[in-house]
Design goal:
single chain, 465 residues, alpha+beta, four-stranded antiparallel beta sheet, 12 helices, 11 strands, 16% strand, transmembrane, Sig_transdc_His_kin-like_C, membrane
Length: 465
């Protein structure tokens, strides 16, 4: 038994989904059609037999009134041809039997009905070469049994014709079920086939620009397969963006690394001929080499940080943004002594904590402060504020520099993006991209805007709780 089940399972696995669905749908409809035809056959046969029995009972009632004054009577010539009902009466005592032989069979059960010891009953038999159905009942007020018989060959032929007709209907239903099953499988799985073909094409070409055509229809009334195709298209869009971002990151990183690596090679070759340089030239080349090494190291570290999609969960803890902000501002004052940093925090915001990695959040704040200080004029202020805004904790960093133009605003968080006014400033263009990535990893929202009165305004919102 287990071997047959295993063979059936292997057969199903080897068949395409469309074939299995067609077979399942066809089998379901065919079973319903065959079941209905079978039930109809038994109902027709029962009703025709029941109608014959009612005719026998009515005939018996009519002859009971006629034969009340008669004595025992053997069947007449009608019992020989069975064209009309065959009727005879049988006494309970054999000594009272008529001289003529009975046309219908008489046995002990018939005598028991005549004596009132047995209930009326129906029976099947053959008389004069014809199949008949006989009804035996006791005559009222007499110790005699009345036997009434009718031919059943007409009923049998009617049942046979009904069986043939129903078999034809059932066969047509099976064929129709097969056609409908095939149509349902092709129609219902057409989007799945397109999805499979698209996936195979993407796997073969490694091109995520392909999409599945969705049927037109009112929004919100799509079926499951259409929603699956739409989700697959969304996934392809995300994959295409991810691949494009990866290629752009590699291209930008290659471009950004080319200049410092060229300068490193130049200074390294220059120091290789140190015996031809003066002490001042050697010190200048050595200092430039050290600065360029730090720039390349910082750039590589930033790229590694940007390659991380999420924060390491074992390092997540409850941190106080107010304390992190004060620490980041103190560090920025030491790094940018010519900039006036100010901190303003609501009393309610001091005790608020958020889940996060302290080192990563500190990096986010330092990147925002460094960016603000970079664009602030010497002696200009950089204002920071921490406050509860509704159901969120909001931190703002504002500078009084040239601000962000409308053309640059959509791109300030892009990797390696640098505005025209920032081309001459130090940096690789990764600080704000890293800040937004850290914010998203902490389920926070980082936005940029033009500050009222000039300058740039960065707003970081942590969800409450």
């Amino acid at each position: 038994m287990s071997g047959r089940r295993g063979l059936g399972a292997r057969w199903r696995r080897r068949r395409p989904l469309r074939t299995r669905l067609a077979i399942a749908a066809s089998a379901a409809v065919a079973l319903v059609a065959v079941g209905i035809c079978t039930a109809a056959f038994f109902i027709i046969r029962y009703q025709m037999t029941r109608q014959l029995e009612l005719n026998l009972a009515q005939t018996a009632a009519q002859y009971s009134e006629k034969m009340r004054t008669w004595g025992p009577t053997a069947g007449d010539t009608s019992c020989r041809f069975q064209a009309v009902p065959c009727v005879q009466s049988v006494p309970s005592d054999k000594s009272r039997d008529p001289r003529d032989p009975y046309a219908l069979p008489v046995d002990d059960t018939t005598r028991a009905v005549a004596a009132g010891r047995h209930a009326p009953y129906y029976s099947e038999l053959t008389v004069a070469g014809y199949p008949v159905r006989m009804y035996t009942v006791r005559l009222r007020g007499k110790d005699e049994a009345l036997q009434v018989a009718l031919r059943t060959d007409t009923v049998q032929r009617g049942v046979q014709k009904a069986a043939v007709a129903l078999a034809g209907v059932g066969g047509a239903g099976v064929l129709l079920a097969a056609g409908l099953g095939y149509w349902v499988s092709r129609t219902g799985l057409a989007p799945v086939a397109r999805l499979t073909a698209t996936a195979e094409r993407i796997a073969a070409t490694r091109d995520a620009r392909h999409r599945i055509e969705l049927p037109a229809g009112p929004p919100g009334r799509e079926d499951e397969v259409t929603r699956l195709a739409a989700s697959f298209n969304t996934m392809l869009g995300e994959l295409e963006q991810s691949v494009a971002a990866q290629r752009r990151l590699v291209a930008d990183a290659s471009h950004e690394l080319r200049t410092p690596l060229t300068a490193l090679r130049t200074n390294a070759e220059l120091l290789a001929r140190a015996d031809r340089l003066t002490d001042a030239q050697r010190d200048r080349a050595s200092g430039a080499l050290g600065r360029q090494l730090r720039e390349v190291t910082t750039l590589v570290n930033d790229l590694i940080e940007l390659a991380r999609d999420e924060e390491p969960q074992p390092l997540v803890e409850q941190v106080r943004p107010a304390a992190l902000l004060e620490h980041a501002v103190e560090a920025a004052r030491g790094h940018w002594p010519e900039i006036a940093f100010t901190v303003r925090a609501d009393g309610a915001a001091h005790g608020v904590t958020v889940p996060g990695v302290p080192a990563r959040l500190s990096r986010l704040l330092s990147n925002l402060l460094d960016n603000a200080a970079k664009f602030s004029p010497p002696g200009g202020p950089v204002e920071t504020e921490l406050a509860l805004a509704g159901d969120a904790l909001e931190l703002t960093v504002r500078d009084h520099g040239p601000g962000i133009t409308a053309e640059d605003l959509p791109h300030v968080f892009d990797r390696f993006y640098r505005a025209e006014t920032a081309r001459a400033l130090p940096g690789s263009g990764l600080g704000l991209a890293m800040a937004r990535q850290i914010a998203r990893a902490h389920h926070a929202e980082l936005t940029a805007a033009q500050a009222p009165g000039g300058g740039a305004l960065f707003r970081l919102r942590f969800p409450a709780g």
